[in-house]
Design a protein that fits this description.
Bound molecules: calcium ion
Oligomer: single chain
Largest sheet: 7 strands, mixed
Distance between the termini: 56 Å
Shape: globular
Helix content: under 10%
Length: about 550
């Protein structure tokens, strides 16, 4: 009897073979976070209005390692009014309660005192916020990252960001400390439960820039927090929650010893990349300027230079400016501000404006390798002459009443005329160790570099070719031809091909984190690369959305748009 039924069933599905037909399987949930640290994602986390209190915000947890739940995060909305820099959700390791890792949420508390940056630590198993730091009243901008201890556990912090220390211009009181998650220490009421307050005031007067970076400066295995200021960097130990080093430096002094001291105000609005050299020294490469493609910024982030900080491992006090090369400063410097010179301030110019002459555009962190030597590579603009001088407009900014919106508008309108100032874009290579110029190339603009484009794994650059006649600063109206793919060999370009079709690459603006930070609110300019056809070589996306890549069979770059 049983055998007969089985045969019958097999007969029914004869065309597909005799098989057990499964019920339609439910699609497996795709999780984004790994809370039990086994390398497999198991949980989704989302910020949404709470089901029971729609005005409040909850962390909505759906998980296969803990019960689904809603964790009350804030009584209000969690959007931010200022620049709140840092990853918004991070799994930080197991600090308390049970083996599941805690989660840090970076958001804003919105209430009567405005929109305040906040950092909450959530114990997902227990379904509660176990620690929280909130910025003091009046603060809108903040900087957060996730430094690790020697076993990889993370200790997030909420730190002041751009403009802190300057009460005259930005209005708000000085914040002056960061809140570091240290659950094993007494909580500081200035921060909140689970957080300890650490001074970020490197000296009596200071001007905080936007970001910072992580680097183990004292060699205790804990990543330390280096914050970027005008004129200096200041480092806080994540282990001891104390300041361990302030290093002041002048990036222009070596190149312009006779210029008025501090004319550039120590601005560091560019990329900062921390790394350990092959000689074991800790270094930070700082490139003042804009990311590639940042043509709309006529001031080019104000101050253009390349500099390297250096220290011996474990000895923060040895950190010093190893070398620097200064290339220019956008605006004029005046020796005196006096209404008598409002109509003609030329006599009071102590250092003339460079306008766009020397402006740097760099890709990624500007680090590269040429002929087995670590180098710095960047584009710079050599301006023939600015279209607009704007000296009077700039001088008026400083005359009482200073910096009025009207005066700022007049100045901005004037300098905007310089977007089309004629000149040439060029590329320069410096030796990372000491800044020695090794190579420069005229009438080119380098958009990025990759080792993943060619079967040989050779590092190649994407180069836009420009005419040897002047071009406008912002290259507007200038046709972009097909990009060249080139290597740098024995201090010279070596051709590796040409991309099919014309157009610039699609640049991704990647925010600084970990060992990479920035002084302003800019980002790291990275190429858009992906192996779309699974042949082991990466394809490159162009600005118009097409993808191009190398064809090993045809020995050339071809269109690979799927
Ligand atoms: Ca897991
Ligand atoms: Ca835990
Ligand atoms: Ca350390
Ligand atoms: Ca490919």
């Amino acid at each position: 009897m049983f055998r007969k039924v089985l045969v019958l069933l097999c007969g029914l599905v004869a065309l597909g073979g005799c098989q057990y037909i499964r019920p339609e399987a439910a699609p497996l949930p795709r999780y984004a976070f790994d809370l039990n640290g086994n390398g497999k994602n198991d949980t989704n986390l989302a910020l949404r209005p709470c089901t029971t209190a729609p005005d409040a915000t909850c962390l909505i947890v759906t998980s296969e390692v803990t019960a689904d739940k809603e964790v009350l995060l804030s009584a209000g909305k969690t959007g931010c009014a200022g620049q709140v820099q840092g990853r918004r959700v991070e799994v930080i390791g197991d600090h308390a309660n049970d083996p599941l890792e805690e989660v840090a949420i970076l958001y804003c508390e919105n209430g009567a005192t405005g929109s305040l940056p906040a950092l909450a630590i959530v114990d997902v198993s227990a379904g509660q916020v176990v620690a929280r730091a909130v910025a003091p009243s009046g603060q809108r901008h903040s900087f957060t990252d996730y430094p690790r201890n020697p076993v990889g556990k993370k200790y997030p912090f909420l730190a002041p960001s751009y403009g802190d220390g300057d009460t005259s211009f930005y209005g708000q009181a000085v914040w002056g400390y960061l809140c570091l998650y240290k659950p094993d220490r007494p909580s500081d009421p200035k921060c909140g439960t689970g957080f300890t307050a650490v001074s970020t005031a490197p000296q009596e007067r200071f001007f905080r820039e936007a970001g910072g970076y992580l680097q183990d400066l004292d060699a205790d295995g804990w990543e330390d927090i280096t914050l970027i200021f005008h004129d200096l960097v200041h480092t806080v130990s994540t282990r001891t929650a104390e300041g361990i080093g302030t290093t002041a430096y002048d990036v222009a002094a070596a190149t312009e010893p006779r210029s008025p001291k501090g004319f550039h105000a120590g601005r560091s609005y560019g990329t900062h990349a921390a790394f350990t050299g092959t000689d074991g020294k800790l270094r930070t490469l700082i490139v003042g300027g804009m990311p590639v493609g940042g043509f709309e910024n006529v001031m080019c982030n104000v101050s253009w230079f390349v500099a390297v900080l250096e220290s011996s491992p474990g000895q923060p006090s040895t950190r010093t400016l190893s070398w620097s090369r200064f290339y220019g400063f956008n605006s004029a410097t005046f020796s005196e501000i006096n209404p008598a010179y409002a109509e003609d301030p030329r006599a009071k110019v102590s250092r003339p404006a460079d306008h766009q002459n020397g402006c740097i555009h760099s890709f990624s962190d500007a680090r590269s390798v040429m002929d087995r030597e670590h180098v710095v590579i960047f584009n710079y603009f050599r301006e023939d002459a600015p279209l607009s001088g704007c000296l009077k407009e700039q001088y008026r900014l400083y005359l009482a009443p200073a910096w009025t919106p009207d005066k700022q508008r007049a100045w901005q309108a004037c300098i905007a005329g310089n977007l089309q100032s004629p000149g040439t874009w060029n590329m320069r290579v410096l030796r990372e160790r000491d800044g020695t110029p090794l190579f420069s190339s005229l009438n080119v603009y380098v958009w990025g570099a990759s080792k993943d484009l060619l079967p040989s794994g050779e590092l190649v650059y994407l180069v836009e070719m420009l005419p040897d006649t002047p071009v406008p600063f912002d290259l507007r109206g200038h046709p972009t031809g097909p990009l060249r793919v080139r290597a740098l060999i024995n201090g010279a370009w070596s051709e590796r091909g040409t991309l099919p079709g014309a157009g610039r690459p699609r640049i991704r603006a990647v925010p600084g984190s970990g060992s990479r930070g920035h002084g302003s609110s800019e980002s790291f300019a990275e190429l858009t690369l992906e192996d779309l056809d699974g042949d082991g070589l990466k394809e490159l996306q162009l600005a118009d959305g097409t993808w191009v890549g190398y064809s090993p069979r045809g020995h050339q770059f071809v269109n690979k748009t799927p």
